[in-house]
């Protein structure tokens, strides 16, 4: 039986902010410090984050506690 995989899901900025629960300036400060996954440009003025990268970062933060 073939293994079912899930396609990567992109998150836009409002979704990331809601998921992580921080302000835009905090998120960009973390990216500048290279402590949060960077966004990916998908054309024009559109940037996204890979959902699995964001959730892994969140899990890593929980594991540090």
Characterize the structure shown.
The protein is of the alpha+beta class and 65 residues long. It has one domain. It is built from 3 helices and 3 strands, in the order E-H-H-E-E-H. A 3-stranded antiparallel beta sheet has the order 1-3-2. A hairpin with a 2-residue loop joins strand 2 and strand 3. The protein starts with 9 loop residues before the first strand and ends with a helix. The mean pLDDT is 94.
Name its key features.
alpha+beta
Quick summary:
The protein is an alpha+beta fold and about 60 residues long.
Show unreliable segments. none
Beta-strand share of residues: 15-25%
Structural class: alpha+beta
Largest beta sheet: strand ordering: 1-3-2
What order do the helices and strands come in, and which of them pair?
Elements (H helix, E strand, L loop, with lengths): L9 E2 L1 H8 L3 H9 L7 E4 L2 E5 H13 L2
Antiparallel strand pairs: 1-3, 2-3
